[in-house]
Model the fold of this input.
Amino acid sequence: MKIRVLAAGAMAVGLALSGCGRSDPGTSAAPATGSAVATAAVTGDLTMWAMGAEGENLPELIKDFTAANPGIKVKVTAVPWDSAHDKFANAITAGTTPDIAMVGTTWMGEFADLDALDPTPGNIDKAKFFPGAQATTEVGGTSFGVPWYVETRLVYYRKDLATKAGLTEVPKDWDSFKAFVQKMKSASGVKYPISLQPGGTGSWQTVMPFAWSNGAELASGDAWTMDTPQMAEAWTYYQSFFTEGLADKAPAAGTTEADFASGKVPMFISGPWMMSAVEKTGGAGFADKYDVFVMPAKQISASFIGGSNLVVFKNTEARDAAWKLADWLTQPDVQVKWYGISTDLPSVQAAWEDPELTADTKLAQFGIQMKTAKAPPTFPTWEQVAVKFDSQVEKVAKQAADVAAALKSVQQEATSIGTGG
Amino acid sequence: MIDKRPAWVSALMYVIVSLALVAVISPFVWMVLGSLKTDGELRRVPPTWWPETATLDNYTQLFARLNFAQYFTNSLIVAVAVTIGNLLFCAMLGYALAMLNFRFKNAILTLVLGTLMIPGVVTFIPLYVLIVNLGMADTLPALIVPFLVAPFGVFLMRQFIQGLPPDLLDAGRVDGAGELTIFARIILPLLGPPMATLGILTFLGSWNNFLWPLVVAQNESTYTLPVALALYTTGQNQANYGLMLAGACVVVAPLLIVFLVFQRRFVAGIATTGIK
Done:
């Protein structure tokens, strides 16, 4: 009995403590361009955070930078992708951020909203990047950082099986794409010719390329625009692959590579990292058996652009040096060298003209798609809205729910979450 | 003890226990076997049990890319220090709360239990800010000091010590022993079972801790093993499963050794305290 009373008291203490909310830091109105930086003979000690393999490989690349800029010392700390977001969020709260860091494109809105990022100075040419990638750095009209590397989503298909089915031309628009998938099914006798994500975390990354291709947008200005005819048409098209038995409503997790290699599911939509994954699974010679093509167009061919940006944190004591490094990392020749070290795809358009990238025909397709690829708006609330989006995709794909009702619900939920900032 | 159950019941029991054993142990076996497979084989469907071409590549990669000795030492220092701290301080506080009479005793006990109720995520950021303001960020003590005494341990010790006969203490007092002597010479030697339980649980918790060491460390020299292993196994969009499984084997090995050494005490501790 005594214990129960104690526990109840303790619970009250716990509730009272956890009830304390964080006060809203608010955002100061930032100018469209950061104040100018000194570019010649800059000195300073920099700490840089970079995730995973980037953190491991960066020191090799940065040797060139420090050789050319003897006054600048760079210390790279590798951070695991796992929980990296938490590490940044804590560091921002406690003021222990590094000078410069690589951050995921979808974190920009949140970090800029916390007033942690330094606006990009005017000496960095923003037009040299893919427009979709540049857009991920802009929050409320101000650019907070530079795109570092990019990725986008394409359609992967088994070229050998398609040829056997008499399909020699890749589909360019929605109608021919559907016909292509249907023919893959009837000719090769597979149960499901294409793997599409039936909802769940990140499924918007497969749905939105179709919506963007149809001219839909997630938001316009300060308002969400989920419930539009263009969006509805794209969702209905996406849904039809499930209702017509072309895509599995309940695929097993993590079998995409294996099913692709065995020919069980000869098509899927994903990013450039899948090239090495399917080639590893498929074994020697598999690279010749498959190919990629850009998203089928309704109005245009659009896809999702992801990757990472480089940001400079406001509390840096070596601002000039930090931006100098960011500028250097986005020079076309440095980006090509970095591709050679890390296989990260350049965010600078000019780097794609280098023979090292043009030689690979599959890679060239990614380069083409990148020009029109888009990213969701950089509202700090996007991740919350994405969860609602994904759960409605699941209802539409798995339960054949009404698209109009689903979009109405996404729009309502998104509006009540707001666009923050 | 004579077993009066009929033979078929015993046989059935063995079958059930064996099935349970297989269920428990097979993911573990898969982890070890998987760490010897190539990435291509790991992704294959249907999966293979026995590696077709066993390779130590994952391990050589792991050890070549990580400054393993450093991370292992960091992990060991932190886990051992946290464990010793918990054993000592939890026993002391537990003894005071169980056997001594002083003002606000119940209030303190309530407070201890209260902290047990608060989820770690709530105190995470304030604790981090505190550590930074103390100038301890990026040091190994930052991984140790906040965890030197845990409310669960205090509660465990108090419950156990409360069950000891008070006559023992009185006997000590009659012989002229002070509180410290009583604690050190009478109470501590009796605390074997809860000490083993608390020791192993604390060591496990500290050894596997990921988020706190990740956030506190400002550079790689203060990374612990779980943080370091996460570095190259998970990418932005995909994971290297072979490397991940090899890493898991490496992290788990010291734990297995600790458990095997203290196994009997561990089980005894659970039986005696009936907690966790």
About this structure: The mean pLDDT of chain B is 84.
